[in-house]
């Protein structure tokens, strides 16, 4: 910051984040430290390269004014990123109530007895700000490992194993459920077949009874045994289902 008697100027270096084929701007803040009207004028050693708005003006007592300096788009970058361009800011007290229209070259004429303060400003090229990296860096020593992703979108290391394990577990659940459903269907079919067999045997038994037979006692024992076996089979199937 300049500490002249009339104006405080900040900054004293015009820093431009240099980029090819792009207009770049920076600002100056002029603060009037007096109770008088102060006129200012901005000059540069390379007027075709820079645009200053406003390049002349009035700073009211105890107030501030912003000046925007714009560097035109450049087609080539200097080899050493050094800039020799300079600016000169002149300031002088003027009449109360003065306006920018009242500012003439004569106002800053030292030979006419005017007390003109001058402040030189230099131009500095700086590197443009870099966008943040989308890929987080590796975890520090002693901390838990972070999930990381490669440029082609695949998981790295243990993260890939954990993801594959979780996916396989998710697939196993519906697989086991399908097996269980198939087993239940199979048991239901066997149960139905057993019931149909039981019904058919009962019908055959009734037919034998109606016809009568010489071995009446032997037939009764066989029928009892068959019915008992069918009952055991039905109980076993119902227990499993």
In short:
The chain has 241 residues and is an alpha+beta fold. 33% of the residues lie in helices and 26% in strands. The chain has a five-stranded antiparallel β-sheet, with no helix packed on it. A five-stranded mixed β-sheet has the order 3-10-9-5-7, with no helix packed on it.
Q: What key phrases describe this protein's structure?
A:
single chain; 241 residues; alpha+beta; 5-stranded antiparallel beta sheet; 5-stranded mixed beta sheet; 33% helix; rod-shaped
Structure write-up:
- There is one protein chain.
- The chain has helices at 157-211, 216-240; strands at 2-3, 7-10, 13-17, 24-32, 37-44, 50-53, 56-59, 64-71, 86-94, 117-126.
- The longest helix has 55 residues, at 157-211.
- Strands 1-2-4-8-6 form a five-stranded antiparallel β-sheet, with no helix packed on it. It has a five-stranded mixed β-sheet with strand order 3-10-9-5-7, with no helix packed on it.
- Strand 1 (2-3) and strand 2 (7-10) form a beta hairpin.
- It has two helices and ten strands.
- By secondary structure, the protein is an alpha+beta fold.
């Amino acid at each position: 910051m300049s500490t002249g008697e009339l104006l405080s100027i900040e900054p004293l270096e015009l820093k431009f984040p240099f980029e090819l084929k792009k207009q770049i701007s920076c600002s100056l803040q002029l603060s009037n430290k007096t109770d008088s009207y102060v006129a200012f004028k901005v000059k540069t050693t390379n007027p075709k390269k820079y645009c200053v708005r406003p390049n002349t003006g009035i700073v009211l007592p105890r107030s501030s004014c912003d000046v925007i300096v714009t560097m035109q788009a450049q087609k080539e970058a200097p080899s050493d990123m050094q800039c020799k361009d300079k600016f000169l800011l002149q300031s002088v007290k003027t009449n109360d109530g003065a306006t920018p229209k009242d500012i003439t070259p004569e106002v800053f004429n030292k030979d006419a007895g005017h007390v003109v303060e001058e402040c030189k400003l230099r131009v500095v090229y700086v590197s443009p700000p870099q966008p943040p990296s989308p890929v987080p860096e590796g975890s520090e020593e002693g901390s838990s490992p972070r999930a990381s992703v490669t440029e082609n979108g695949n998981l790295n290391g243990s993260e890939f194993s954990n993801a594959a394990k979780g996916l396989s577990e998710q697939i196993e659940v519906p697989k086991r459920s399908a097996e269980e459903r198939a087993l239940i269907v199979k048991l239901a079919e066997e149960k139905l077949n057993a019931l149909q067999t039981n019904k058919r045997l009962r019908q055959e038994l009734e037919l034998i009874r109606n016809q009568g037979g010489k071995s009446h006692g032997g037939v009764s024992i066989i029928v009892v045994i068959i019915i008992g076996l069918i009952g055991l089979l039905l109980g076993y199937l119902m227990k499993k289902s």
